[in-house]
């Protein structure tokens, strides 16, 4: 299934409007797994805004061409080739009918039309529709679709497509049909069909204008009891979009369908969202608190796309963040509002912290490597490789900065104007920026650089206090430091950075802020400075005492702040900052500084020692009952090993692991009684509740258990974890207990309790694929030891009957978890992890290039590691480069090696 075509670089600068437009599409499917016949009737016309083309060129891949008709008559000048169909001498306005055949049963790429579990599904974004029928498969060609599905009624009793159901009925020979119409123009990437043996949870709700809507969550029959949370999340999403943005569901029905074989998390096809089962199925016994939260977020994300992505879509794939960055921002705001509303800043901050942790660990790393690219890329070889953290997460931060600059009301005004101008159109990131600027009467020309410059900006801060004049000056300087070459090439000048700041007095309270030149005092204690120059000084007046600055509050821009806080100052901020995000940030900085020092010592064999002040700072947070459990759990979680390794001039995962484990053991032993008290205080007896409050208690309790598992004598932790495992009435507590048992066992060369729990876990849940994914992942990410390296466990699990490389969830649960989430074991000096990685990338490339390309990115930062590790990674990359065939993987490894 691999694409062996020579890679061609596609550039944004080369964009040209399509020579032809398609106004209507009528598709007819005769669904047979090995030979599905597709009849495609289109109304085609020349584009008056494009250069006149001599012929019509349609995209098509892995299709068998049967025949063409124009205006009802056979058309002989249609020539099929490997990548499409060429039609010569076509009229200016005509009806084109094409008949072709595809083989969904053989489609392991899971792009286009494929069979999973005996059912038919589609995935068309970005370029899957061309695997279904010949078409102008580009997002700026928008048409209305009517779809007729025909199939065996016994084998495929449910037939679904986009929009509204017009008609259904029986046919001869045990077949039946359904006809669907989507009244809204859409690009082909939003097309979907589903056919199979499915059942639905249904709800009828009324929209804000009083119209009745049918909501359905379709799953395989044995999963129906796991759909309630997804349905509730959909209802909440509909209500939230009406209230926050005035956007109403525009179809008579909205459907979600769950499939176990899916490359992505979910897909926003108009009215028929197809989801990975991971983001639909949940009940207390099978899903963790994180799963429940992720389902709510992803259901929201795909529903919000109905307007930000479907009603207004991308002109071309370079504009991908127009829909994805904007919709990630919307789903983040939705989740924050579900957790804390508009007023509970502590609850909202917990969500903010979680989002920024992901951004820093994954997107900042992307900015530092060979795949660095702007939010709006300038070129690509394979578009599937640009569904990246930069497009999604940094794109979301760019959208958030508009709201930071203009406030909620100003942002809403901009969104309203955006829809008024562009509903039903395929547009650009610049169109979005212009709508926000015009609605708020602002010139945002400089803000465009956030879309066109790659790399993570760095803001260095200098401060000066003049006691006699009671003036406090803050000088900001922006740049990119030692950005990756791919990022340096795109930098054109200073950015407009909304930089939120507060000043804290010696009593721990915020000071009122008045900038020089302002005529009246203000009670405001956080100001957003519009930082637009390479270097800029802001002076606050009437500052009665020398303050401590609280910088970049609520992470108001996706930048790295450089300011030389002392350890005592960080401890003070951790104790007193009124901004919850910066309170957490102070603790992370304190921990990171200490861990980096210890990692440096570990790399040279020097004995490790942790300052008592760090233990004291952690103890204050652990025992501070005024802080929410969810916040304390995040504040007490050490920075990840992957993040810490990236902060080193030369990444040394083994040294980082030694340092981090040393700190965890020190905190465990020094605060043993405190951890035990927290564990007891934050139990959640009774029936499971999937609420943020209950989840916060479970998170803090289970963090305490994970620290107790680090004790020099872990017997008590093993007893607690075993009892928790046996008594658990929910997956959150059961999985946490199993994880604690595995890590306690790692320090002691294994344990009977851990193995018994592993065996029991599998027996309990062997018919629940998503839970078995957790079973694989827990083993792939366990700590391991020299006597029992995790690579040996992973290789053995590859032969387990439940493992299937063709299923993306299963591949991610074992292979990706080991390669991306267990750095100390993956980066073993013997290079076994790299050899394993190479073998799996090559194997996946032959099955599913999109999944293979994601795995390939595990080694893209290879040049930043120690010499021994670099050599092993380079050899593995060269092996992959010599063996793979897909554009997807070749682009990744060739950029890494270049």
TrEMBL record:
Signal sequence extent: none
Reported cofactor(s): Zn(2+)
Domain Peptidase M1 membrane alanine aminopeptidase: start-end pairs: 230-450
EC numbers for this chain: 3.4.11.2
Source organism superkingdom: Bacteria
UniProt enzyme class: hydrolase
Domain Peptidase M1 alanyl aminopeptidase C-terminal: 568-898
Annotated GO biological process: proteolysis
Annotated keywords: Aminopeptidase, Hydrolase, Metal-binding, Metalloprotease, Protease, Zinc
Reaction(s) the record says it catalyses: Release of an N-terminal amino acid, Xaa-|-Yaa- from a peptide, amide or arylamide. Xaa is preferably Ala, but may be most amino acids including Pro (slow action). When a terminal hydrophobic residue is followed by a prolyl residue, the two may be released as an intact Xaa-Pro dipeptide
Pfam families found in the cross-reference section: DUF3458, DUF3458_C, Peptidase_M1, Peptidase_M1_N
Span of domain Peptidase M1 alanyl aminopeptidase Ig-like fold: 455-564
Similarity comment text for this entry: Belongs to the peptidase M1 family.
Name of protein: Aminopeptidase N
Native species: Paraburkholderia ginsengisoli
